[in-house]
Amino acid sequence: MNYSLQFGEILRHWPDLLAGAITTLLVAFVAFWVGVLIGLGGALAQRHGRPWLRRSVRAYVVFFTNTPSLIQLFVLFYGLPDVGIVLTPMQAVLIGLSLNAGAYLTDIFRGGLASVRQAELEAAATLNMNTCQRFRYVTLPHLAQTLYPMLSNFFIWIVLGSSIGGLFGVDELAGKAIEISSTTMRSIEAFSVAGAIYVVLTFIASLFLYAVGYFCLRVRARFI
Amino acid sequence: MLPLSVQLHQLFTGFTFTFLLQAALSTLALAVAGCSCGLLVGLVVACLRRSRTLYLLPLRMVLVVFVELMRRIPFLVTLFLTLFVLQALGTNLSFFSIALIAVCLIATAYLAEIFRAGFDSVPQPQIDAAKTLNFSPLQILFTVMLPQSWKVVLPPAFSFMVSFIKDTALASQLGVVELTFAGKILITRGYSAFLIYGLVMLVYFALSWPLSLLGAWLEQCTQRAFNPTADAMPAGTTPITPALPNPALLDRR
Amino acid sequence: MPHLDINNLSCSYGSQPVLDGLSLSVEKGQVVSLIGGSGSGKSTLLRVIMGLTQPTGGSISIGEQAVDYGSAASVRAAREKIAIVFQQYNLFNNMSVLRNVMVTPTRVQKRDERKVRDEAMTLLSKVGLKDKANVYPAQLSGGQQQRVAISRALALQPQILLLDEITSALDPELVGEVLDSVRQLARDGMTMLLVSHEMRFVREVSDQVAMMDKGRIVEMAPPEQLFTQPQQPRTQAFMQKVAWH
User: SS3 string of C153-198?
Assistant: First the structure.
């Protein structure tokens, strides 16, 4: 009961935490964009691919969305060495989070593709656009418009989700907090400061994404 | 490490398998308890946030801050904070109870937000009509708002609760013997990490997948409810409803 | 003694005055119609009477009882005596027609369920919707929904009925059936205050017609007088503009 809060020692590690926050953003950024690539590819494959491809993409999505990403990382990091593949923590976390994000994003993009109006595609076809042009001028703008709010929220979700990287020794925000809490023994302070940084980080990210959506895509995403 | 054949033999004959099953039950217990608490308290929080009484204003502000914080701090950090704060307060709770408290806090925040979105979907004129008919606030809630918002609330609430089964994996970090931690224990006894975590993954999958299918089915049902014309909707106008992770975060449009 | 007495009522949204010192009284058994351009405050007046929008000044009394809009109990008492039918019907989407009519008498007024059911069926058959009792609002036409809304209001056994542009949202061929129901009510001696753009109907059914402009009543007179010899320039201008069918 005689616990007194002392933030001084945590604040001395301020540069560390800041570096951690930047790593967090980087990890989230990589995982998000790789996920977007996987997601777009997966959604297109599910829509236009051959039956075996559709089925295997579906299996990937169902499997990765129905198992915890923590366990996916465990398998990658602790499991794979048993079969002779050794990954660094950073590699394992990036691969795991990207695959995980890719599965969710495949589902999101699939919904987006299904909502493109057939009439618009037909109109584009009558204008002699080829498949690539139709995708570029009709489908992609539609996806950007309708999915933007979901995607920007998904990015925030990945920022939060990337915190499990800290458990594998990746030097991102949560990892730094764990490290600082074990060296200084001031756990409450370390984790509450880390929590506050997460709040600020996601808030700035939301605000930024809102502004980009508003000015570039004319989409109003909620940021609170 | 033991040879693979010995591992497999021991895994399916010894008590190891029941050990994993018990751990799965513990995972389920965490998820169910968190969700039940979240549903109840989240509903109350959402209702309080709608109240317009002046003397509840401070409470409303606290609730807004609480919900926003919980949704912007990673689950892992919340778990650790709960653990250390409760320990510093001198409470002598088991790891399971501590995880339970953290899980309840998080579920409450997310489900409160889902309820809020549901309540916002009820058209104001419906509420005005009920007011002019002298409905009490509770009558408005139970006879108008809840019956009209459940089809907006149910799909995201259900998929949140399913995803919660996976999220409780993090409780292993506190030392709660649920599925993930049980896997760790088995690995220290000489099993292959690849084998055990693969198995643990399959158990999670077996818990989560049937429920996701049920959720997708429920969503289809709710889309038809009160809307007999839904089947006749022209192609291309169907709303986008992909399966989403933590929908409370994602539906913030 | 007027049944509904509105005295010097004012109301504003922000700095914009919507009702500006409005006075009006409705005698028992009278039908008073409010006409006027959009934005003249007609619907706001009805919302204020029902306690959905707070007045900023003035007073309203029903019977002999003044309504205090700051007090929940007083507003409750007022709503016991007045019922309103909205432009957009506002039937509860989650309840069948019969339950829409029955829910307030049974749940709020705590009256006997069997008796209420009989009354509700009588009301529904009066508006010709007895066979739709177990159907949901979404499956009805606008005109049918509006007649259910009238039955729902009447099931409260109100002393005064407010009708807020009840035909504005309807297709032209559905207007007749709703107005017939209101005519029947007028013949039965129901006290009503209604807002309408159906000039012919207003002229036929009202005892008094009040012309509203900028949140006040410019002129109030029996229909024949107001429609044929309007006194005020604002009323004259309005009469020239409205289409006569």
Answer: HHCCCCCEEEEECCCCCCCHHHHHHHHHHHHHHHHCCCEEEEECCC
